[in-house]
Amino acid sequence: MNRAIALTPDHRAGSPRLTPDVVPGVHRIEHAFTNCYLLTDGDAWTLVDAAFPHTWSPLIRAAHELDLRMRDLQGIVLTHGHFDHVGVAARAVEELGVPVFVHGGDRILAAHPYRYRRERSPLLYPLLYPRSFVPVASMVRAGALRVRGVEAVSELPGTGTLDLPGRPEVVFTPGHTYGHCGLLLRDRETLLTGDALVTLDPYKGRRGAQIVAGAATADSTQALGSLGAVAATGARVLLPGHGEPWLDGAASAVAEARAFGRS
Predict the structure, then answer these.
(1) Residues 6+ apart with CB under 8 A from 119
(2) Which of 61, 168, 180, 220 has a 20 to 30 A CA-CA distance from 50?
(3) Range of the domain at 246
(4) Are the CB atoms for 253 and 230 separated by under 8 Å?
(5) pLDDT digits (tens, 9 = 90+) for 125-175
(6) Which DSSP state fits 213?
(7) Rounded CA gap, 73 and 76, in Å?
(8) Residues facing 183 on adjacent strands
(9) For the chain, how many structural domains are there in total?
(10) Measured distance CA(157)–CA(162) in Å, rounded
(11) For 164-206, how does the pLDDT look when each residue is reduced to its tens digit (9 = 90+)?
């Protein structure tokens, strides 16, 4: 895996960094313990998830590092509509005219990214899980409390291949949100899991393959059930919305996440 490139001189935990070619043609930006991915096809590219408002400048710098132009961004695909995945979407629509895609089950959430269903209040999590403090504080610094929703969206189908750079295939994985989708890059045996399966839960600060805590998950039972769709892809590499890439295959990640269970 290629070495990460710092995108700002800020060396605090959670500062933005770019990892080119996590798999060929897929580039990871990590900002405030949250990932977004650039899928490239020649000069054209797709952005998967949109992190935070302060991710805009690191995104421009990442495009420059990869010899991409912002005007060649063909679309933004949101795995779901939570505030930490919608951050720069509205700005991209306004400044670049870029189409934004989200499943119909999350269309309202993308427009109002703080109005989400969850099983538990997040207020006690910092006390119960002190390791969550650094991820949560990093998100706040990245603008997590000031995310504008995006209303001008196109709806993703429940299945099928998108006519966008990278040719991602939609894998419907509801539970974290009711319209959550992963994206399969079949030719690279890679699944972008969004928050259907993560390797870092920001609400607990816990690492390893798992679903996200009930503080941000609408239906943990449904989320655990959707792990079957993750396993069925047979992906060799999983690229989550939070945490490091999982390189040991979908089956092992799903087994570990099921062992963790809900919380």
Answers:
(1) 214, 215, 217, 218, 219, 220
(2) 220
(3) 5-260
(4) yes
(5) 988 999 999 999 999 999 999 999 999 999 998 899 999 999 999 999 999
(6) P
(7) 8
(8) 170, 192
(9) 1
(10) 9
(11) 999 999 999 999 999 999 999 999 999 999 999 999 999 999 9
